[in-house]
Design a protein that fits this description.
2 domains; alpha/beta; 4-stranded parallel β-sheet; single chain
Length: 264
């Protein structure tokens, strides 16, 4: 499905630079590197023609949080509401649920094998820019300058990327879903992505609700695979009013859904 990969990092981002440098040591034949001089979320710093010559783009980046914490995270880019950190309001990047699942599983496995005990491995909901035309994902090290400079963490991320690219295969047995509900970090969707047959692409968090029909349709349309159903973190959606809005949108558009407690 994907033959040519591009790894994008920024000169302004120590974590992304370290990941790219670690990955470059493996000399994977179908992987190229592109270091930009602007912040990684700024589309005006990216050569669109260059990016469009690749099949899949991986943004290697830092994750920043005022709360701190050591994290390795994966997420799709895009903005369901106002675009405050790059991208465009209401628009998402294309992504692959199957690639995201395999990358997340490999990241979790690599961190465990290399005994990176003090880091948590997590999905994040879809957020921030840039907005590009090619399918893509962010993989990040967080959440303070201490972690961004951690070369051991960077090598673990690099190995996860390498393993995913080298072993990636389309899985016809995966059920494909988008996620709705829960916090920015996605503990319930993490379990699904790691342990079930379901592959999740875009995740819509509780904090951007109430949702619009356009939000849900955009998340489905920007998933490379055909989406089988919407996966609802029912308790993480919020009050009954918000749940009813979502159910009405899904019913109107003949979109199937499942609740998390229905997944074995």
């Amino acid at each position: 499905m994907y033959k040519k990969y591009l790894i994008i990092s920024s000169k302004q981002d120590k974590a992304g630079t370290n990941i790219a440098l670690a990955l470059a040591q493996y000399k994977i034949p179908n992987v190229d590197f592109y270091e930009i001089s602007t912040e990684i979320i700024d589309i005006w710093g990216i050569d669109k023609n260059k990016v469009n010559s690749y099949d899949f783009v991986i943004f290697a980046s830092k994750h920043q949080s005022e709360k701190g914490g050591k994290t390795l995270s994966v997420h799709a880019p895009g903005n369901f509401k106002k675009a405050e950190l790059g991208g465009e309001t209401g628009k998402l990047c294309k992504t692959s649920a199957v690639f995201e699942k395999q990358l997340f599983q490999n990241l979790f496995k690599q961190a465990k094998e290399d005994d990176l005990k003090d880091y948590s491995v997590t999905l994040e909901c879809t957020h921030h820019g840039p907005l590009i035309e090619k399918p893509c994902l962010f993989i990040e090290i967080g959440a303070t300058p201490v972690e961004w400079r951690d070369k051991r963490a960077a090598f673990i991320v690099a190995k996860a990327i390498k393993n995913t690219i080298e072993t990636f295969k389309e899985n016809p047995y995966n059920e494909i879903a988008i996620g709705i509900g829960g916090p920015h970090y996605c503990p319930n969707f993490n379990k699904i992505q790691l342990e079930s047959n379901i592959a999740i692409s875009h995740i819509i968090p509780q904090y951007i609700m109430p949702l619009t029909e356009e939000n849900i349709i955009e998340a489905i349309d920007k998933t490379q695979e055909e989406v089988d159903f919407v996966l609802l973190d029912w308790k993480g959606i919020g009050p009954a009013e918000q749940r009813n809005i979502i159910l009405e949108i899904l019913s109107k558009n003949y979109i199937s859904y499942k609740k998390l407690n229905e997944i074995k």
